[in-house]
Every structure is written in C-alpha cells, then in structure tokens.
Amino acid sequence: MERKYFDYSATTPVDSEVLNEMLPYFNNDFGNPSSVYSYGRDSKKAIENARYKIAKLINADAREIFFTGGGTESDNWAIKGIAIALKNKGNHIITSSIEHHAVLHSCKYLEKHGFRVTYLPVDKYGLISLEDLKSEINDRTILITIMFANNEIGTIQPIKEIGKIAKENNIYFHTDGVQAIGNTVIDVKDMNIDLLSISAHKIYGPKGIGALYIKKGIKIDPIIHGGAQERKKRAGTENVPGIVGFGKAAEIAYNNLDKNIQDLTNLRDKLIKGIFDNIDYVILNGHPHNRLPGNVNISFQFIEGEALLLSLDMVGICGSSGSACTSGTLDPSHVLLAIGLSHEIAHGSLRLSIGKYTKEEDIDYLLQELPKIIKRLRNMSPLYEKVKGGE
Amino acid sequence: MYSDKVMDHFTNPRNVGDIKDADGIGEVGNAKCGDIMKMYIKVEDNIIKDIKFKTFGCGAAIATSSIATEMVIGKTIDEALKITNNAVVEALGGLPHEKVHCSVLAEQAIKAAIDDYMAKK
C-alpha cells in the first residue's frame, strides 16, 4: 500500500539535494574542524558556509548562529543559559501555557531551583494577550520565551509585537521557531528577537542538528561544557554532515519561501474545506488565518483520536493526534486544553500537517477515506447515538 | 504496539450496535478519560443470548469491548460475572501496559449490564 504522509510537523524526509551535499562529509571530508591540517580546514569551511546560509534565512549575522543537537537543546540552552547568566539581575521568566515541552519542562526545572515562571493563558485561537504580557512584567523579569508558531494547532503569535514589548522593557526575548522556520518569514532584526531556536529536520534536513540564534551582545552561559567549539559557547566536536545538511536545507528554504507558503496554504485550505464540506460535527483548532501554512488541526466529535489514527494507518495515511491515548499520559494535549477544549473534544483531535512533497491527489485520497472512517467510528460511539437520538 | 488479535477486533469488531428491547444496559467510563463503553444484553433462561456494544475510545477500548462480547455470549449470568479483565487481556494476546484499564472497563461494562438486568427483573 502506498503511504500518504500527513505529519510534516513531526519530521520531514531529507531532501535528496541536502543528502547529496552531506554525503562527502561522512567519509571523504571527515576531518575534525578543530584540526589544523587540510582535512580539518575543509570541514571548518563547510561549517562556516552552512552558518552563513542559516543566518541568511532569518536575517541574522553568521556569527550569531550556534549549532546544537536539535531544537530541544536550543530551547534548553536559551532558557537555562539566560537564567543562569542573569540570576543576579532577576529570577522571573514569562512563557505561555502552550509551549513545546522542551520549553515548559526547562521552565519547570528552573522553578525547582528558585526561579518564578508565569505561564500566560491563550485565547480560543491559541493567541496570548499582549496586555497580559505587559502586566506580568516586573523588575525581576529576565526572559520572555513565547513560541513563534505552535506545533499542534499552528497558531502564529504576534512575534514582532512581543519583541517590541521585550525591548521596551529591556528583557531578553527567546522564541521557539522550530515549526515556523521555512514556513513563515522570520526576521530576527525586524522582530526584535534576541534568541531563536531552530532545527533542521523540520525543513527537509537531517535529525539531530539544530541551532540557537543568539543576538550579538546577549549574556548567556553555556550548558554543554568541554572544548572551545562554537566560540566557546557550545562544546563538542561538530556534527559536520548534519551542519552541512542544515545549511543546504536552509538555502533551499530561503530560495523557495514565498512559493512554499503559497502552495501549502492553498493545499491546507482545500483540505480544511474538504473536511468541513464532507463531515459534520467538526471543529477547527487554532487560528483560522494566523496559522502555519501546512497545519490542519481538527476535532471530530464523538470519536477518539487514537482509534482514528489506527484507522487512517490501515489505509496508508499517517497523521497525529492530541488524544491522551497517543501521549502515554491520562490527559489530552495541554495545548488543546489551554485553548478551552473539553477533554472529550480534545480526545477527538487530528493533526494533519502537509509539506512540499504533498500532492493535490494526496489531499483527494484523504478526503475520500476520512469520511468513511469517521462514519464507522461514530456508528460505534455511544456519544454519537445520543446526538442522533436527539435529532 | 498492538497484537494481531487486538487489531483484528479493532478492524472487525464483533457485536457492534444496540438492542432495542434489551433486558439490561450498562454504561461505564466517561468522556473526560476518553473511554465510554455501553453494553446491551438479552437474557433468556438465565443465559445471555445476545449482547451488543457501543464504545467511544481508543483501539484497545474497541477491541476489548468486542472480545468481551464474544466471551459473554451463551454464558449463564453467573459465568458472565466471573469474567475478569485479566481474562479479557489474555484472550486478546496481551495489551500494552497503559491500555490495561480498557480491559477493566470491559469487565465493568458487562457487570453493569447484568446489574441493570437483575434490578429490572
């Protein structure tokens, strides 16, 4: 059976151009970038070339890009590194209730060590309130960390406005841009972003490589100690093939950004419309317009998400859900609960995320299979029976 | 993560539906936890002649409901009351640890339907 992939927010396949660029760095050009001989120098050059391409994608200077082991490490570094560096200035951090766990759990960790964290609520679309943000700032606030775009519901925050508030109050602003990169315009200068977490595997690059943009002049402690790599800020021999792949992926993302956004938006809107036209009792989660071009998140009432995912998998469709049964915990996704969904509605959520290899016929196939699956599961559901009985 | 038997019962669940003139109806679980099981039984001469279920829940919840109905049909009330969640798990060839509560719900749903029957009798 041919598989149809609708989980680009989870990860993406490595672009063959990216892979080809990486391959020589596994064996022919294998040198340690710290070595003085030509092998080392060649690796070093490849890293600097990649750094430049990534900087260009977010309008930063190459010297402001620091490679990490992925988005999670970047988030951990930004939050813990700033907290430790500024602990004598203050101990208060402001974040949102819908952050990725890499941010939330880093904040929880700091709470155990004497820091105070404010988790801003969000509205039904998943947006924070700028007024809330302003009112929570105090003279002990050292960091605002609010994600650029949400991984589950795709909502894009008013990043430029948040950056402006942070700057006016002389507070560092970090944003988790892992989902946003390559899917929306990120301009760290225009948006007053001080720290930005990004990752390669969401933009058709390899897994296990990410970066943290750190604006020049920002005070941050390292959290990985060892050698002098990454200008003494992040120790460890560089993942050269990964970095080269990340650079190439960023270059492709930069060159195709506008077209990618337009193509994905068209497909996304077709998918949403198709679902709403063909299935009743559905709710679109996330913002109707300010959302990632590739993100669709819909709750199907009266059914449960894991049963839906298993059924989709049987016809070759790969998706994801915020149901408790897919998270290994008893509660459904914290993001879906934060936007005010009841547990029941949150359990029936389905995230379909599309990317540059998604074809129109994939959408057609999904729209052909999904209504049948929903109908089958609803016919088994005692909750649907009650609704039908009331009609 | 699921056994073939679980997938079989999830894909082709047995005894789905309801019984209009059921002798007993049991409903357990709640939507908050993500599982609701409802079972309908038809009893003749102390024997469960027919059973149907409706379930809101994950793959394991649907599969446990399905196999539980198979285990109950044709049994006397006393025999049906002796079916444990462990027996349900065993019949399915095992369940992932975090899904064992689904089998508990299945056991409870059978008991709730029988309780309802006894109360009405």
The counted number of beta strands of chain B is: 3
Helix content of chain B: 40-55%
Find the structural class of chain B using helix and strand composition.
alpha+beta
Low-confidence stretches of chain B: none
Relative helix content of chain A: 40-55%
Describe this structure in words.
The complex is a heterodimer of chains A (391) and B (121). The model of chain A has no long low-confidence stretch (mean pLDDT 96). Chain A has 13 helices and 12 strands. Chain A folds into 2 domains: 4-11 and 257-389, Aspartate Aminotransferase, domain 1, CATH 3.90.1150.10; 16-255, 3-Layer(aba) Sandwich (Aspartate Aminotransferase, domain 2), CATH 3.40.640.10. Chain A starts with a strand and ends with a helix. Chain A is globular and about 75 Å long. Helix content of chain A is 41%, strand content 13%. Chain A has a 7-stranded mixed β-sheet with strand order 2-8-7-6-5-3-4, sandwiched between helices. Chain A has helices at 16-22, 38-57, 71-85, 101-111, 130-136, 159-168, 229-232, 240-278, 305-314, 334-338, 343-347, 360-379, 382-390, and strands at 4-5, 65-68, 92-96, 116-120, 141-145, 172-176, 195-199, 210-214, 282-284, 295-300, 317-318, 349-353. With 391 residues, chain A is an alpha/beta fold. In chain A, helix 1 (16-22) packs antiparallel against helix 8 and helix 9 (305-314) crosses helix 12. Chain B has 121 residues and is α+β, with helices and mostly antiparallel strands. Chain B has one domain (4-120): Sufe protein. Chain: A (Alpha-Beta Complex). Chain B has 5 helices and 3 strands, in the order H-E-E-E-H-H-H-H. Chain B has helices at 4-11, 59-72, 77-81, 85-91, 100-120; strands at residues 24-30, 35-44, 47-56. Chain B has a 3-stranded antiparallel β-sheet with strand order 1-2-3. In chain B, helix 1 (4-11) crosses helix 2 (59-72), helix 2 (59-72) crosses helix 5 (100-120) and helix 4 packs across helix 5 (100-120). The model of chain B has no long low-confidence stretch (mean pLDDT 95). At the A-B interface, helix 9, helix 11 and helix 13 of A face helix 1, strand 2, strand 3 and helix 2 of B.
